[in-house]
Amino acid sequence: MGPQVTDAPSTSLPLLAAQLGVWVAQQLEPESLVFHVSQFADIAGPVDADVFECALGRVLVEAEALRVRIVERGGEVRQELVSGSDWSLTRVDVSGLADPEGGARAWMREEMRRPFDLAGGGRLFTWALLKLSEERFFWYQRCHHIVLDGYSCSLVARRVAEVYTALVRGVPCPETSFRSLGRLVEQDRDYRDSPQHERDRDHWSARPLTEVEPLLLSGRSAPAADLPLQQSAYLDKESVNAVCAAAGLGPAGWTGAVLALSGAYFARLAGRDTVTVELPVTSRVTAVHRSTPGMLSNILPLSVPVPSGATITDVLTDVSASVRHLLLRQRYRQEDLHAGLGHAGGQYAFGPMVNILSFDHRLDFAG
Known about the structure:
Layout lengths: L10 E4 L2 H12 L7 E9 L4 H14 L5 E6 L2 E6 L8 E4 L6 H13 L12 E9 L2 E9 L5 H20 L11 H12 L2 H11 L31 H10 L7 H17 L3 E8 L5 H5 L6 E8 L6 H17 L5 H7 L27
Parallel strand pairs: 5-6
Antiparallel strand pairs: 1-4, 2-7, 3-4, 6-7, 8-9
Protein backbone atom coordinates (compact mmCIF):
# COMPACT_ATOMS: atom_id res chain seq x y z
CA MET A 1 0.00 0.00 0.00
CA GLY A 2 1.77 3.17 -1.17
CA PRO A 3 1.01 6.86 -0.84
CA GLN A 4 -1.96 8.06 -2.85
CA VAL A 5 -0.39 10.95 -4.77
CA THR A 6 -1.69 11.66 -8.25
CA ASP A 7 0.03 13.56 -11.03
CA ALA A 8 -1.18 17.09 -11.70
CA PRO A 9 0.05 19.94 -13.88
CA SER A 10 2.36 22.37 -12.13
CA THR A 11 1.07 25.76 -10.99
CA SER A 12 3.37 28.78 -10.75
CA LEU A 13 2.87 31.39 -8.03
CA PRO A 14 4.87 34.37 -6.77
CA LEU A 15 6.55 34.03 -3.39
CA LEU A 16 4.86 35.25 -0.24
CA ALA A 17 6.65 38.20 1.34
CA ALA A 18 7.86 35.94 4.16
CA GLN A 19 9.19 33.42 1.65
CA LEU A 20 11.06 36.11 -0.21
CA GLY A 21 12.74 37.16 3.04
CA VAL A 22 13.92 33.58 3.61
CA TRP A 23 15.10 33.30 0.00
CA VAL A 24 17.21 36.47 0.23
CA ALA A 25 18.73 35.47 3.57
CA GLN A 26 19.58 31.99 2.25
CA GLN A 27 21.28 33.50 -0.81
CA LEU A 28 23.49 35.57 1.49
CA GLU A 29 24.62 32.35 3.23
CA PRO A 30 24.00 29.51 0.75
CA GLU A 31 25.59 26.82 2.93
CA SER A 32 23.76 27.76 6.14
CA LEU A 33 21.33 25.28 7.68
CA VAL A 34 19.59 27.83 9.92
CA PHE A 35 16.44 27.70 7.79
CA HIS A 36 15.89 23.99 8.37
CA VAL A 37 12.80 23.30 10.48
CA SER A 38 12.89 19.91 12.21
CA GLN A 39 10.77 18.08 14.77
CA PHE A 40 9.67 14.57 15.65
CA ALA A 41 6.66 12.98 17.28
CA ASP A 42 7.32 10.23 19.82
CA ILE A 43 4.51 7.74 19.21
CA ALA A 44 3.84 5.34 22.07
CA GLY A 45 2.23 2.27 20.50
CA PRO A 46 2.33 0.22 17.30
CA VAL A 47 2.33 1.96 13.91
CA ASP A 48 1.36 0.32 10.61
CA ALA A 49 4.05 1.79 8.37
CA ASP A 50 2.16 1.15 5.12
CA VAL A 51 -0.99 2.86 6.39
CA PHE A 52 1.14 5.68 7.80
CA GLU A 53 2.69 6.21 4.37
CA CYS A 54 -0.78 6.35 2.82
CA ALA A 55 -1.86 8.96 5.38
CA LEU A 56 1.21 11.05 4.61
CA GLY A 57 0.55 10.76 0.88
CA ARG A 58 -2.97 12.07 1.32
CA VAL A 59 -1.80 15.01 3.41
CA LEU A 60 0.91 15.73 0.84
CA VAL A 61 -1.85 16.25 -1.73
CA GLU A 62 -3.82 18.48 0.64
CA ALA A 63 -0.92 20.64 1.91
CA GLU A 64 0.20 22.38 -1.26
CA ALA A 65 3.12 24.14 0.43
CA LEU A 66 4.90 20.79 0.81
CA ARG A 67 4.85 20.30 -2.97
CA VAL A 68 6.56 23.59 -3.73
CA ARG A 69 9.70 23.85 -5.83
CA ILE A 70 11.53 27.18 -5.97
CA VAL A 71 12.54 28.30 -9.46
CA GLU A 72 14.28 31.40 -10.78
CA ARG A 73 13.52 32.45 -14.32
CA GLY A 74 14.24 35.74 -16.01
CA GLY A 75 15.39 37.29 -12.74
CA GLU A 76 12.15 36.43 -10.91
CA VAL A 77 11.91 33.87 -8.11
CA ARG A 78 8.64 31.90 -8.09
CA GLN A 79 7.23 28.74 -6.57
CA GLU A 80 5.82 25.91 -8.60
CA LEU A 81 3.39 23.32 -7.26
CA VAL A 82 4.13 19.81 -8.48
CA SER A 83 2.41 16.50 -7.89
CA GLY A 84 4.79 15.00 -5.34
CA SER A 85 4.49 11.59 -7.01
CA ASP A 86 8.25 11.04 -6.63
CA TRP A 87 7.94 10.94 -2.85
CA SER A 88 8.17 7.88 -0.58
CA LEU A 89 8.47 7.47 3.18
CA THR A 90 11.95 6.83 4.57
CA ARG A 91 11.81 3.89 7.00
CA VAL A 92 14.55 3.35 9.58
CA ASP A 93 14.67 0.36 11.95
CA VAL A 94 16.88 0.91 15.00
CA SER A 95 15.06 -1.60 17.18
CA GLY A 96 18.01 -3.99 17.09
CA LEU A 97 20.46 -1.51 18.59
CA ALA A 98 21.51 -1.63 22.23
CA ASP A 99 20.26 1.94 22.58
CA PRO A 100 17.43 2.42 20.07
CA GLU A 101 16.56 5.94 21.21
CA GLY A 102 20.19 7.04 21.03
CA GLY A 103 20.46 5.51 17.57
CA ALA A 104 17.28 7.26 16.41
CA ARG A 105 18.43 10.63 17.70
CA ALA A 106 21.85 10.20 16.08
CA TRP A 107 20.18 9.37 12.74
CA MET A 108 17.98 12.46 12.98
CA ARG A 109 20.89 14.73 13.91
CA GLU A 110 22.84 13.50 10.90
CA GLU A 111 19.85 13.87 8.57
CA MET A 112 19.32 17.44 9.77
CA ARG A 113 22.70 18.35 8.29
CA ARG A 114 21.75 17.32 4.77
CA PRO A 115 21.27 20.51 2.71
CA PHE A 116 18.14 21.12 0.68
CA ASP A 117 18.61 21.95 -2.99
CA LEU A 118 16.77 25.28 -2.71
CA ALA A 119 18.19 26.90 -5.82
CA GLY A 120 18.09 23.70 -7.88
CA GLY A 121 14.34 23.11 -7.63
CA GLY A 122 14.60 20.07 -5.36
CA ARG A 123 12.07 18.71 -2.87
CA LEU A 124 12.03 20.82 0.28
CA PHE A 125 10.81 18.37 2.93
CA THR A 126 11.69 14.98 4.41
CA TRP A 127 9.52 12.54 6.34
CA ALA A 128 10.85 9.44 8.05
CA LEU A 129 9.40 6.78 10.36
CA LEU A 130 11.91 5.35 12.82
CA LYS A 131 11.07 2.08 14.58
CA LEU A 132 12.52 1.85 18.09
CA SER A 133 10.42 -1.17 19.05
CA GLU A 134 7.08 -2.74 18.21
CA GLU A 135 5.50 -0.29 20.65
CA ARG A 136 7.47 2.90 19.97
CA PHE A 137 8.09 4.95 16.82
CA PHE A 138 9.49 8.37 15.98
CA TRP A 139 7.88 10.31 13.13
CA TYR A 140 10.57 12.71 11.93
CA GLN A 141 9.76 15.82 9.89
CA ARG A 142 12.17 18.28 8.34
CA CYS A 143 11.53 21.04 5.82
CA HIS A 144 13.01 24.25 4.56
CA HIS A 145 11.57 27.32 6.27
CA ILE A 146 10.62 28.76 2.88
CA VAL A 147 7.73 26.27 2.64
CA LEU A 148 6.51 25.87 6.24
CA ASP A 149 6.72 27.68 9.56
CA GLY A 150 6.24 26.22 13.03
CA TYR A 151 2.50 26.85 13.07
CA SER A 152 2.19 24.99 9.76
CA CYS A 153 4.13 22.00 11.09
CA SER A 154 1.53 21.75 13.84
CA LEU A 155 -1.31 21.89 11.29
CA VAL A 156 0.29 19.14 9.21
CA ALA A 157 1.01 16.93 12.22
CA ARG A 158 -2.57 17.11 13.48
CA ARG A 159 -3.94 16.35 10.01
CA VAL A 160 -1.64 13.33 9.56
CA ALA A 161 -2.77 11.95 12.93
CA GLU A 162 -6.42 12.49 11.93
CA VAL A 163 -6.05 10.78 8.53
CA TYR A 164 -4.02 7.86 9.92
CA THR A 165 -6.61 7.27 12.65
CA ALA A 166 -9.45 7.19 10.11
CA LEU A 167 -7.57 4.77 7.82
CA VAL A 168 -6.73 2.39 10.68
CA ARG A 169 -10.31 2.38 11.94
CA GLY A 170 -11.79 2.04 8.46
CA VAL A 171 -14.01 5.10 8.76
CA PRO A 172 -14.45 8.02 6.36
CA CYS A 173 -11.73 10.61 6.75
CA PRO A 174 -12.97 14.08 7.77
CA GLU A 175 -12.63 16.69 5.05
CA THR A 176 -9.49 18.77 5.21
CA SER A 177 -9.67 22.40 6.31
CA PHE A 178 -6.56 23.30 4.32
CA ARG A 179 -7.03 26.03 1.72
CA SER A 180 -4.95 26.57 -1.39
CA LEU A 181 -1.55 28.21 -1.32
CA GLY A 182 -2.87 30.56 -3.98
CA ARG A 183 -5.32 32.01 -1.43
CA LEU A 184 -2.41 32.83 0.90
CA VAL A 185 -0.63 34.56 -1.98
CA GLU A 186 -3.77 36.56 -2.83
CA GLN A 187 -4.27 37.71 0.76
CA ASP A 188 -0.58 38.59 1.07
CA ARG A 189 -0.76 40.72 -2.08
CA ASP A 190 -4.03 42.37 -1.01
CA TYR A 191 -2.53 43.34 2.35
CA ARG A 192 0.59 44.85 0.80
CA ASP A 193 -1.59 46.94 -1.55
CA SER A 194 -3.94 48.06 1.23
CA PRO A 195 -4.24 51.21 3.37
CA GLN A 196 -3.66 48.95 6.40
CA HIS A 197 -0.14 48.20 5.15
CA GLU A 198 0.53 51.93 4.92
CA ARG A 199 -0.81 52.48 8.44
CA ASP A 200 1.35 49.63 9.75
CA ARG A 201 4.41 51.10 8.02
CA ASP A 202 3.73 54.49 9.60
CA HIS A 203 3.33 52.85 13.01
CA TRP A 204 6.63 51.02 12.84
CA SER A 205 8.44 53.99 11.30
CA ALA A 206 7.51 56.04 14.35
CA ARG A 207 9.02 53.55 16.81
CA PRO A 208 12.34 54.66 18.47
CA LEU A 209 14.21 51.49 17.48
CA THR A 210 17.66 52.93 16.80
CA GLU A 211 18.34 54.89 19.97
CA VAL A 212 20.56 52.29 21.67
CA GLU A 213 22.65 49.35 20.61
CA PRO A 214 20.93 45.94 20.77
CA LEU A 215 21.51 44.01 23.97
CA LEU A 216 23.89 41.06 23.57
CA LEU A 217 23.53 38.50 26.33
CA SER A 218 27.15 37.38 26.01
CA GLY A 219 28.57 40.89 25.88
CA ARG A 220 30.20 40.07 22.55
CA SER A 221 29.16 38.89 19.12
CA ALA A 222 29.52 35.28 18.06
CA PRO A 223 29.68 33.60 14.66
CA ALA A 224 26.44 32.14 13.36
CA ALA A 225 26.01 28.43 13.98
CA ASP A 226 23.90 25.95 12.04
CA LEU A 227 22.94 24.04 15.17
CA PRO A 228 22.57 26.05 18.39
CA LEU A 229 24.21 25.40 21.70
CA GLN A 230 21.22 24.70 23.88
CA GLN A 231 20.58 24.34 27.57
CA SER A 232 17.09 23.39 28.71
CA ALA A 233 15.43 23.82 32.08
CA TYR A 234 11.93 22.80 33.05
CA LEU A 235 9.44 24.41 35.41
CA ASP A 236 6.89 22.20 37.10
CA LYS A 237 3.24 23.20 37.23
CA GLU A 238 3.51 24.57 40.76
CA SER A 239 6.39 26.87 39.79
CA VAL A 240 4.52 28.19 36.75
CA ASN A 241 1.41 28.84 38.85
CA ALA A 242 3.54 30.65 41.46
CA VAL A 243 5.04 32.93 38.80
CA CYS A 244 1.60 33.73 37.42
CA ALA A 245 0.19 34.36 40.88
CA ALA A 246 3.05 36.76 41.70
CA ALA A 247 2.12 38.74 38.59
CA GLY A 248 -1.57 38.68 39.46
CA LEU A 249 -2.40 36.27 36.65
CA GLY A 250 -4.25 33.00 36.33
CA PRO A 251 -2.40 29.90 35.05
CA ALA A 252 -3.32 30.80 31.46
CA GLY A 253 -1.29 34.01 31.71
CA TRP A 254 2.13 32.38 31.81
CA THR A 255 3.12 33.71 28.36
CA GLY A 256 2.75 37.31 29.51
CA ALA A 257 4.67 36.49 32.66
CA VAL A 258 7.53 35.00 30.63
CA LEU A 259 7.80 38.16 28.52
CA ALA A 260 7.64 40.47 31.53
CA LEU A 261 10.18 38.50 33.56
CA SER A 262 12.52 38.13 30.59
CA GLY A 263 12.37 41.86 29.90
CA ALA A 264 13.01 42.68 33.56
CA TYR A 265 15.98 40.32 33.66
CA PHE A 266 17.50 41.74 30.47
CA ALA A 267 17.03 45.30 31.74
CA ARG A 268 18.80 44.52 35.00
CA LEU A 269 21.57 42.71 33.12
CA ALA A 270 22.17 45.72 30.86
CA GLY A 271 21.50 48.44 33.42
CA ARG A 272 18.79 49.99 31.23
CA ASP A 273 15.29 51.19 31.96
CA THR A 274 14.00 49.94 28.58
CA VAL A 275 15.06 46.93 26.56
CA THR A 276 13.94 45.59 23.21
CA VAL A 277 13.34 41.90 22.59
CA GLU A 278 12.42 40.12 19.40
CA LEU A 279 9.02 38.44 19.47
CA PRO A 280 8.17 35.79 16.83
CA VAL A 281 4.54 36.01 15.68
CA THR A 282 2.43 33.85 13.38
CA SER A 283 1.09 36.73 11.22
CA ARG A 284 -2.09 34.67 10.85
CA VAL A 285 -5.08 36.96 11.22
CA THR A 286 -7.64 35.49 8.79
CA ALA A 287 -9.47 32.15 8.63
CA VAL A 288 -7.41 31.21 5.56
CA HIS A 289 -4.19 32.01 7.43
CA ARG A 290 -5.17 29.90 10.42
CA SER A 291 -6.08 26.83 8.37
CA THR A 292 -3.48 26.75 5.59
CA PRO A 293 0.11 25.45 5.81
CA GLY A 294 2.68 27.85 4.43
CA MET A 295 5.40 30.30 5.45
CA LEU A 296 3.91 33.38 7.11
CA SER A 297 5.78 33.75 10.41
CA ASN A 298 7.42 37.03 11.31
CA ILE A 299 9.72 38.50 13.98
CA LEU A 300 9.06 41.98 15.36
CA PRO A 301 10.63 44.15 18.07
CA LEU A 302 8.89 44.56 21.42
CA SER A 303 9.97 47.36 23.75
CA VAL A 304 9.81 46.47 27.45
CA PRO A 305 9.99 49.46 29.85
CA VAL A 306 11.41 48.59 33.27
CA PRO A 307 11.67 51.91 35.14
CA SER A 308 13.37 52.10 38.52
CA GLY A 309 11.08 50.87 41.28
CA ALA A 310 8.69 49.08 38.93
CA THR A 311 7.02 45.91 40.19
CA ILE A 312 6.55 42.83 38.02
CA THR A 313 2.85 43.75 37.82
CA ASP A 314 3.80 47.19 36.43
CA VAL A 315 6.06 45.59 33.81
CA LEU A 316 3.42 43.03 32.94
CA THR A 317 0.78 45.71 32.43
CA ASP A 318 3.01 47.61 30.01
CA VAL A 319 4.10 44.44 28.20
CA SER A 320 0.53 43.21 27.80
CA ALA A 321 -0.54 46.51 26.24
CA SER A 322 2.52 46.53 23.94
CA VAL A 323 1.87 42.97 22.79
CA ARG A 324 -1.75 43.80 21.97
CA HIS A 325 -0.64 46.72 19.81
CA LEU A 326 2.09 44.63 18.17
CA LEU A 327 -0.31 41.84 17.27
CA LEU A 328 -2.60 44.33 15.54
CA ARG A 329 0.33 45.11 13.23
CA GLN A 330 2.03 41.74 13.06
CA ARG A 331 1.69 41.33 9.28
CA TYR A 332 4.20 44.11 8.59
CA ARG A 333 7.32 42.25 7.54
CA GLN A 334 10.54 42.38 9.53
CA GLU A 335 12.44 42.69 6.23
CA ASP A 336 10.53 45.88 5.41
CA LEU A 337 11.18 47.19 8.91
CA HIS A 338 14.93 46.57 8.60
CA ALA A 339 15.02 48.13 5.13
CA GLY A 340 13.25 51.23 6.41
CA LEU A 341 15.88 51.59 9.13
CA GLY A 342 18.75 51.12 6.70
CA HIS A 343 19.88 47.72 8.01
CA ALA A 344 21.78 46.21 5.10
CA GLY A 345 20.51 42.81 4.00
CA GLY A 346 18.20 42.52 6.98
CA GLN A 347 20.98 40.81 8.95
CA TYR A 348 20.27 42.65 12.16
CA ALA A 349 18.79 41.80 15.55
CA PHE A 350 16.93 44.22 17.79
CA GLY A 351 17.80 42.19 20.86
CA PRO A 352 17.37 38.76 22.46
CA MET A 353 14.53 36.66 21.09
CA VAL A 354 11.77 35.41 23.40
CA ASN A 355 10.00 32.68 21.46
CA ILE A 356 6.86 31.31 23.12
CA LEU A 357 5.38 28.26 21.40
CA SER A 358 1.71 27.78 22.22
CA PHE A 359 0.87 24.97 19.79
CA ASP A 360 -1.21 21.95 20.79
CA HIS A 361 0.94 18.88 20.11
CA ARG A 362 -1.33 16.29 21.69
CA LEU A 363 -1.59 13.87 18.77
CA ASP A 364 -3.58 10.64 18.63
CA PHE A 365 -2.50 8.06 16.06
CA ALA A 366 -5.41 5.63 16.38
CA GLY A 367 -4.91 5.53 20.13
